[in-house]
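Notes from the 1:1 (GR / supervisor)

We went over the backlog. Supervisor wanted to see one worked example end to end before approving the batch request, so GR pasted a single chain during the call. The sequence is below; no edits were made to it. Supervisor asked that the structure be written out right there so they could see what the output format looks like.
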Amino acid sequence: MFYHHPRLILLKNKLKTTVFVLFILFAACKTPEKRSDLIALSNFKILNLADETVLRNEVVLLKEDSIFEILSEEEFKKNYILPDSAIVNGKGKYLMPSLVEMHAHFQPRNPHHKRYLQQYLSYGITQIRVMAGNEDLLSWKDSIAQNLIMGPDLKVAGPLIDGEKPLWGKFHDGPVITNTGHADSLISEIKAKGYDLVKLYERLPAKVYFEFIEAAKKQEMRVAAHIPFEVLTSAKTEEVFNTNSPSFEHFKNFGPLVTKNEVEKIAQPEDHIYYGYRLAEDPDLQKIYEVVKEIKQNQVWTSPTAVLWKNSSDSARIAAIMKTEAYKGLDEGMKNWWRSTIENQSRNMVLNRLNELFLKEMARQEVKLLVGTDFPNPFLIPGYAVHQEIHNLVDMGFSNLEALRAATIYPAQYWEEKDPAPYFTQGRLANFLILNKNPLEHIENTFSIHRVVKKGEFFSPKTLRE
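Structure output shown during the call:
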């Protein structure tokens, strides 16, 4: 019989333990995985816009059109081996979410408008909310999604729903609704056709407007609206601004809510400028404070499109815009139309002042906004004007961070029913801006675009504008 000496048994057990520990250690040392389907964005300074922190030493891995993983440089080197051609070195560059235009219009029958989509992309805009839709725009939306048309992804509102007489007269090509009873069926039709939201307009009767708001809520459709004239003359403030409110477009119809003097409030004025101009001439700061307070308390989204009034009311600004290369590249029909509106500067100064008073109060009360421009209205260069609106918010008192959020994170919150995950998260579409300079330091640095990334594809701004 073999004699088991105690020291031999101890040595044997120690050897087993050592072998077991070494096995665990070797098993834990994962061999880096060779991948040819990934792109690594490495060595960037990342602005995730959750706060003003600049993230370093993080690698953003892309697979096809989305974020595959975010991990530290150390973890990346440990876990993956990628060909050199698949590693984008961002030394000295900043990476941030791409921009969103939340109020624009396009005319598919105009041969130049499709080109303006590409120009939008060159300025880092990867999504546009189109505010008056038709079947042709739905076709554009599908074609862009299938990479048949170059441009930002589109979110398209249904055709404008207005009352009698439609604000745009013979140019109105949407439904005209004068009585209740149509909202459910019309919203069902808009939803079935693939539109993303319902657009309500200025001459709708108040009872029809509120019926559409309720019907859209039941069918889980978003609504954007100009506050109808009749609502302005009859509804109480709490009826206009509450948790069921649509997103409100522009501040030009807010005049009757904040006017200092008692003025005649006509339910259906012949001249639509009456509410957008006459009743905005003498605003009451206390009333503006109260309206903004209601907007904040009820978390009502607004897209002021303040750049529209700012650009069209300042002769020096107009002259500067008309000297830009971007302006020279616009079609002659648009330039002629814009030039013909210069005589409206005095009226637009009134509207610009109203916008500035609202924006300054919103900055003080820290209200969330959505950046929009109302292109192709006068002196709004496609894409370029989005940056101007961001900069304008800063001029009105918003921090650089809040102004950037209004064109990035807040549009994401608008579209998502729940609070969205952080922007740089696994599964999100790879839509980014690569910048040469940090816009959190100087907001004008939004223009320092090195590359635009849309769904994992890299674009040169210069090439997109050629």
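Supervisor's comment: The longest helix spans residues 6-28.
Batch request approved.
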